[in-house]
Give the backbone structure.
Amino acid sequence: MAEVPKIVLPHGGYRNLIVYRKSDVIYQGTVAFCRRFLPARGDRTVDQMTQAARSCKQNIAEGSAASGTSKETEIKLTNVARATLDELLEDYLDYLKSHGAGEWPAASEKKAAARDFAKSHADWDDWKPFFESRSAETLCNLMIVVIQQTKYLLDKMIAAQEEDFKLHGGVRERMHAARTAARGEDWDGAIYSRLDGAASAEELAARAAEMRERISKAVWGIKQRKGW
């Protein structure tokens, strides 16, 4: 029997991703930081920070779940996760400035030690003791390091997702190829692997650019609705 192309691609498994585990550290750490150093009521910053941290984690999870049927949705959600970290990073930098402190210099021993620890520790249990005893300045700088590393990983993930989208196309193309193969007819593997069945490299590039523009608009719309 002739091979029938898959309609739903492999997806999920996000809990094993380092980028997801780091996003969980960011969320749990932000909640712990806000509880210790920000007022429980009357400060909108608490809601903004915790919502941004949660949004990063949740959008990575939702994007992973959606990737089997919609690569475009996966890319959009991953971009949203990336955008929320920019907002959260600014909140931590603002806290340092407003309390007469600052970000650790890039060449400092503290920064280097934080980077090394963050590279090899991606679980909340490893970070929790810091948030129970360290100063606000130290915790802000630790979170800045984790956020910067997670942003880097998300950038790599988005690039990989875009390449995967170019390779496998959209669900409509896979459904058409599967129906064609099921009827015993030859199916165009080249079309199956091109973005939305693009007829040329130029059309492929144009559609990829259009997709990036739609993603940017979607991210901006979400940020406006949430007041970020």
